[in-house]
Amino acid sequence: MITKLHLLKQGQSGHVVRVTGCRSIKGRIIDMGIVSGTEIKVQKFAPLGDPMEIKVKNFNLSLRKSEASLIEVKIAST
Amino acid sequence: MSEKNVTVALAGNPNSGKTTIFNNITGARRHVGNYSGVTVERREGTRQFEGKELLVVDLPGTYSLTARSLDELVARNVVINEKPDVIVNILDASNLERNLYLAVQMLEMESPVVIALNMVDIAEEMGEKVKITALSEKLGASVVKTVGNRNKGTDALLEIVLDAVKHHKNKSFQINYGIEIEKKISEISIAMQTMTNIKYPLRWLVLKLLENDLEVYQEIKSRLGGKEILKLVESARIYLKSIFNEDLELVIAERRYTFVGEVYRAVTVPHSHMGQTKSDNIDSILTHRVLGLPIFFGIMWLLFNSVFTIGAYPQAWIENGVEALGEFIGQYMAEGDLKSLVVDGMIGGVGAVLTFMPNILILFFGIALLEDTGYMARAAFVMDRVMRMVGLHGKSFIPLLLGFGCSVPAIMGARTLENQKDRIVTILVAPLMSCSARLPVYTLLIAAFFPESSAGSILFSIYFFGIFLAVLMAFVFRKILFAGQSEAFVMEMPSYHIPTIRGIITHMWERSVLYLKKAGTVILSATVLVWFMTNYPSDTAYSKDYDQLKTMIENTFTEQVAKEILEPLHLSEIEDSEQLQDAIREIKASQLSEKENVSVNLDGLEENEQGDSALHLYALDYLTLEERKEDELKNLEEEQTSEKLSNSYAGCFGRMVEPVIQPLGFDWKIGVALVSAVAAKEVLVSTLGTIYHVGNVEDDSTSLQEALQSDPRFSPLIAYVLMVFTLIYSPCLAALAVMKREMNSWKWAGFTFVYSTTLAWIVAFSVYQIGLFLGY
User: Fold this and answer.
1) B287 touches chain A (CB under 8 A)
2) Within this chain, do residues B117 and B248 fall inside the same structural domain, yes or no?
3) What CATH number does the domain containing A50 carry?
4) B63 touches chain A (CB under 8 A)
5) To the nearest whole angstrom, how far is the Cα of A7 from the nearest Cα of chain B?
6) Same structural domain for residues B162 and B193?
7) Interface size, chain A vs chain B, as Cβ–Cβ contacts under 8 Å
8) Alpha-carbon distances of B750 from B437, B465, B643, B735, rounded to whole Å
9) pLDDT in tens, B507-552
10) CB neighbours of B541 closer than 8 A, spacing ≥ 6?
């Protein structure tokens, strides 16, 4: 099932399908190593619900839900 | 460059331990400044190693080398323009894959690179084992293991650095971007071969053109035949985009990551990366859904209290010390302008610079601690939601909070914001947080014009006003000044580290020295300027001849004493009668002890009265006369200072601005006070004291309160408007000087002066007019 990253729940993981959005934001996201095929796991959400923290390539990254919504993720259907 | 000098540039991701390695290499022999024209810190140091002098430059920490951010641009321009002999790329071994992304970009620039594989201890703990020889082979660069925070591998690193310089083994490094892109690269490369005098490596240049890099684009555009090349590039971009159905720079970035992934898998043993680490466990408490915010506020409370409460002690010592120094030097100087300049102007100015030092040292200690442990990113994570509502970054919270203590550390604290726009907006609104120097102004006015029962609410309303305006202005600036330039909040959450004491101390010291050197000079000269404005012209034409009046008072006193005391007693001088002198002395002593609430020796007094009650009455008379004389002289003195001030340049300025501030209900006296309070807001109180000639108000402001109450021009409404104006208008000179320093131009400091003063006028005007309308 393909969905957007910000819709994932805490602890859920998936693989990046593609990154959308305008060039500069997309560029920043890609520079951090989020490219198609990368495995991503949702670590947690901030106390006020936004931003969110994810695990990618052995490090933790925080990004706002608005940016997470630019990342399409494929989750293994259970 | 001489044979013996070797320049080394340190490159690496943020949080890769780059600065620690820099500290390990250079020790204390370093220098921190800014890259010319920008506010990116430039750290430089030297090191003697095996007979060579190494000059080490610490590049800004970056994830990539695009032209998207200032840090990245600076880093790559150093590599291209300064041509360091060797680039040491520091990789965090526990986070190798993403760190390699920068490394391959460095290698693509065809500069001699050696790799320092840092934090190998943490990586091994996490189960990540890196095969060094394989990595070295894949990248064509020497690799050495280091553990920065235990200073391991530093010498080994320096050895391979010198080795790289000696052998110049420039193995060519190329990433294969796929047939279509490679074909275009070689086409454009051939076309560009005729171009001469290009400082960039050719393949890199072509890649950057295909990536639509603005900086390189401009460079080529300005060259002979450049336009033709750019046309060729443009058509190649369009063609490739149609093939990939995606922006070309993103395709290139993805291919680069694909290559990095291959290297990574070849040099490590596969294992899962998604498990919980120690750092994650710490985070499960520190950024906990419920506990996260209370913990954050607790830490902020600690920081704020350390900066301002602990800082207050050394601050008082410095103030006393400076005062004592002024008095000491004053003893050896003749009265006059020079003494006033040295004591009030210069020593006072040095004092103004130094009094901030304890706050700044503690602040930067705290910030270094938060940054080096990794909590700073968590603070931003927790607060981002709130700060984003006004268009700011989560990290803006800390500088704004510090603003309640003092704007100077607040503005300097904004350094933690990487994004320039967030940083500028934060600095612009930070002075709206009511700093502690404004408190004396509020307490004076509230005590004079408002009942005690409402004092708390009035004070709260002023502070709240400041916060409200800061939020509003941040929103406005974000919308107007930096419209449409919102940037991604993509922030690494580095693993928690136990920081090294040395690292924190150096961090704190470097930034504090920067404050002393740059802001200090401006603050000092500004203080001297204000001294000059309030003391000159010194040859004031007074409305009265004060000296003559003083002599007259003295004469009247002598006459009265002669007539009322000496004549009836048949004395020619007070000194002729020992008994009278004794009586005077005794009464003085008893008045003194009464004042000090010590029980009076009544027996002695009674005895005395019995002995010679007439003499006692004369003595009382004498004292009354003397007291009256002293009072008159003091009044005259204060009137003179007041007149001197009102005739000084500052006074003239106050009168000049009177028409402008009249709609706010202010007269020239408030004008003078407001002008001189630009030096420091608490000066408003002492200047009002001088103008209302009530003398020294620093210890006790009751007399000034009474003077203000009896001024018909003043009313509770005007007092409130004055508080609002004081809150909002131009930050003090120290804050303006630090702004100039932090934003590297007078432009923003000037802008702040204008915008805040305008805003203050508009708000004060509205408050005053609404107040009048409501009948206050």
Assistant:
1) yes
2) no
3) 2.30.30.90
4) yes
5) 17
6) no
7) 132
8) 21, 23, 31, 12
9) 888 777 867 776 677 667 767 777 787 777 767 677 778 888 888 8
10) B647
